[in-house]
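ARCHIVE CARD
Drawer: 12
Card no.: 0347
Subject: one protein chain, sequence and derived structure
Cross-reference: see card 0346
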Amino acid sequence: MMNFRPYPTYGSPGQAGYPSYPPAGVAPGMFPGAAPGPVTGIPTPSGAMIPGVPGPAPTVPTPPGLLPIEESYIENILRLNLGKMATIYMTFENNPQWPAKVFRGRLEAAGRDHIIISDPQTGIRYLLLMVNLDYITFDEELKYTYPF
């Protein structure tokens, strides 16, 4: 009978050949091949740092007249322009009946994944998914900054 072991064995801790972390010659917090330098990390609930993971991104000042970088999302821009007439161009993948469609209406609401418009002539409200959005046009100038 053969002596078959499905998993490699290394012996016991402290014996030659037993793997250790960090590998011999590598300082804690450094990775093989990494350039020497300060250890960066993010705090964990215990207060320890996770090596090699950058901390929070530094804040960037916002130029006057523009939305803060984190707030320049489509839904935020749309929320600043509620009540305006919009023409929304959408495509619907794998839909032979409606490969592309144009919706026109008054912008009522916008969320992270949807837009709600109402057609002033028919009173019909449309809930449109952002995943199908190509682009939007407006008949008037857009607001891009918050009033405060």
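Annotation on reverse: The CA atoms of residues 81 and 89 lie 17 Å apart. The longest strand covers residues 100-110.
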